Structures are given as structure tokens and as C-alpha cells.
């Protein structure tokens, strides 16, 4: 068994002009694929070959296998990130909207927190909207760090590695973050994750 390399959930040019087809061709077609290929090469012929990606991430983390962790966690984070974006503008509704108002005061306050966290994160990493113990919060993780295997349930993520925006925005991360938060976040996906029993899982091969 191998770890899947899932296709984008929309056309490669669907997020333009905010994220270009050129960026997605490189980010998804090269970066994400390379992570998946490295995981599959590492687990071939081992006891991990029939495990889920979540189990591989947990195993690598507990065993201190940094190389496998980096590639497995990055594979998971990227698949979650593609689903966190939508070419159709969405808005929080129902239980998600109520939780945002309860825990942040308003959607605008949440957006500001997401933007501040993503823009001010030093170097490479991820900005997350998560729920834990019935409360929403914004977190960040460094490098390949992930919320996939911790105690929190991820709802959305923003990739702030430079390869997520450099082709389109050069080094101007705030322009990319503003576009993602204001135009592209998939609030329907966040609502599904809030409602689901357990966390989102990486698609099977």
C-alpha cells in the first residue's frame, strides 16, 4: 500500500487571480508530490506500508524520525490546505458562525487574528483554526509541524511557507495572507470539520 497523492479539489487555475495556476502547478505538482514520494520510498517494505498517513506521522514523531515526520506531516498539511481553500467565496454559517462569535467576538476579529498569526509567523510554517475542548482558537506550527495528531481538531489551515506565495507575491507575505483570508478560505470545509466525529483524515490511495 502507498500513500495517495490526491488531486486538487478544483481546477489548477480556479484560485486565480489570488493564487495563480503557476503557483499551484509548482506547489501541488512538485512540492506536495515530492513529500508524498519521499514518504512512500521510506515506508516501502516496512511495517508502516499498510498504515494510514496519520499513523505514520504519529510513529515518526514518537520515534524521533525527523525525515519521515517532515515528509509525512507536510503531505498531510498540504492536502488539508488545498481543502481549506475554495474558488467560490464562502461564509461561516450555523454552528460555526455561532462558535466564531462566541470565541472571537466576530468574524472580523477572527480574520484579524488569522492574518496576524500568519503574517507574523517567523520563517516557514502554518497558521491554523482549531477547536479543542469545545473552544475555537488560532494556532501556528513551525516548519512541518502539524495539528493533525495533537489534541486539537483542525478546521482550516494557511500555508505560510514561501513556496505558497513567492511566484505570485515575491516576499510580500501579507498580500498573500490577506487574499487567502478575505477571498479563499473554505468556511464550508471548516463547518464540516467542526461537525464531524473526529478529525479530517488524509484520503486513501
What report would you give on this structure?
There is one protein chain. This protein has 205 residues and is mainly alpha-helical. It has two domains: 21-84, Helix Hairpins (Orthogonal Bundle); 94-195, Iron/manganese superoxide dismutase, C-terminal domain (minor pseudopilin epsh fold, 3-Layer(bab) Sandwich), CATH 3.55.40. It is built from eight helices and three strands. It has helices at residues 21-43, 53-63, 66-84, 94-104, 107-120, 166-169, 173-184, 187-195; strands at residues 125-132, 135-142, 153-159. A three-stranded antiparallel beta sheet has the order 2-1-3. Strand 1 (125-132) and strand 2 (135-142) form a beta hairpin. Helix 1 (21-43) packs antiparallel against helix 3 (66-84), helix 2 (53-63) packs antiparallel against helix 3 and helix 5 runs antiparallel to helix 7 (173-184). The model has no long low-confidence stretch (mean pLDDT 97).
Can you describe this structure in just a few lines?
The chain is mostly helical. It is 50% helix and 11% strand.
Set down the secondary structure blueprint.
Blueprint (H helix, E strand, L loop, with lengths): L20 H23 L9 H11 L2 H19 L9 H11 L2 H14 L4 E8 L2 E8 L10 E7 L6 H4 L3 H12 L2 H9 L10
Antiparallel strand pairs: 1-2, 1-3
Helix pairs in contact: 1-3, 2-3, 5-7
